[in-house]
């Protein structure tokens, strides 16, 4: 309100008072108490009430204006401070991600000094300490963040991950369980907890966690993978049941796993083991034979060979090989195990027949050459045996020695400046180089040669 407007208002009130007073000359008695009263003209009382109302209105207006401006000033100041803190925090995180840990620590500590209750900064500082190898300090920062917000999902998850990194698996499990108690559908926590259970072979707990993962409804791209993992865990429980002598339960579980995943080799192998544990030898042999015929995995033939040899009944296995080889003549793995069995039974001619059939296919593998060498040796053919041994060992007239990457342990046919597998430079070296360097030859005593000797 301008001064001129205020002056005009005062003039208007004075004129109104004089006019009102002129037409209302009466007096009004106002009792303050039962025995006390005051008497004023009517016009004075009316004008006094108007002035009092205006005064109260102006005071209320000024109070609300001042209060609003004060709160607005405080809010603007807080927001400005928060913007500055956020800018420093973002720069600190950026430095952390780029690997400039020293600068990141300076900026993040500055953020904490200005806003000690900033949970995100505590988390970033914990990550920084973890990268520097100071996990204990990082854990202390996360504990402080948790004291500020005990239900922060991110803080609890970071705490569990850091505990797992430190090898405190029991504490990590407890943290994951705490997070799941707050948010039962947290798939990330459920998967992490499941992996810890698997690591410690807590198969029942892992299976329960996996069922919860599936209940959360993983995406379509992961559903088949998660269902497979459920079957793998059921398999492990069945395998444990065999150890605990609960064979019937194990067999039932394994058969259901095979029904849902017919190409899962371990289930078929272990089902045979379960039959053996119960003394059902024919069922075990039949399970392994069918397993090989359906899946073609050599482990079934390996199991069959050991099984029949231990029971001193190689003739039954030979019968299986001789009957099946007519149908699976092109199955070189089958012929390889057939030949190995014959060699083991000193049936050298039959072994050579199978092994040479494999060699004639053009396949070059040390295993075949080694068995052929042994067959020739037993037939007293030293030259052929030596030739096959050389092929098995990869020995040529040049006597080339093998190389290996000392970083990833990938074998290399010859030296190169960079490993083709892991990409590391300068890591290709002679196989067993370090062992050779570390070895010490026997001390050779100086021989004393006498005159005439």
Give a quick precis of the structure.
It contains 20 helices and five strands. The chain has 453 residues and is mostly helical.
Task: Explain this structure.
- 70% of the residues lie in helices and 5% in strands.
- With 453 residues, the chain is mainly alpha-helical.
- Helix 8 (187-199) runs antiparallel to helix 9.
- The termini are far apart.
- The model has no long low-confidence stretch (mean pLDDT 86).
List keywords for this structure.
453 residues, Serine Threonine Protein Phosphatase 5, Tetratricopeptide repeat, single chain, two-stranded antiparallel ribbon, three-stranded antiparallel β-sheet, 5% strand, mainly alpha
Secondary structure elements and their pairing?
Blueprint: H1 3-23, E1 27-33, E2 36-41, H2 42-98, H3 101-114, H4 119-131, H5 135-148, H6 153-165, H7 169-182, H8 187-199, H9 203-215, H10 220-243, H11 247-260, H12 265-277, H13 281-295, H14 298-310, H15 314-325, H16 332-344, H17 348-359, H18 366-378, H19 382-393, E3 403-405, E4 411-412, E5 428-430, H20 433-438
Antiparallel strand pairs: 1-2, 3-4, 3-5
Helix pairs in contact: 1-2, 2-3, 3-4, 4-5, 5-6, 6-7, 7-8, 8-9, 9-10, 10-11, 11-12, 12-13, 13-14, 14-15, 14-16, 16-17, 16-18, 17-18, 18-19
How would you spell out the order of helices and strands?
HEEHHHHHHHHHHHHHHHHHHEEEH
SS-derived structural category: mainly alpha
Quaternary organization: single chain
CATH names the topology of the domain at 314-400 as Serine Threonine Protein Phosphatase 5, Tetratricopeptide repeat
Enumerate how many helices there are, as a single number. 20
CATH superfamily of the domain at 314-400: Tetratricopeptide repeat domain
Distance between the termini: 134 Å
Tell me the strand order in the biggest sheet: 4-3-5
Give the number of DSSP strands.
Answer: 5
Radius of gyration, in angstroms, nearest whole number: 45 Å
Report the helical percentage: over 70%
Give the amount of beta strand, in percent.
Answer: under 5%
Uncertain stretches: none
Highest-level CATH class of the domain at 314-400: Mainly Alpha
The overall pLDDT average reads: 86
Name the overall outline: elongated
**Sheet with most strands:** 3 strands, antiparallel
Q: In the CATH hierarchy, what is the architecture of the domain at 314-400 at level 2?
A: Alpha Horseshoe
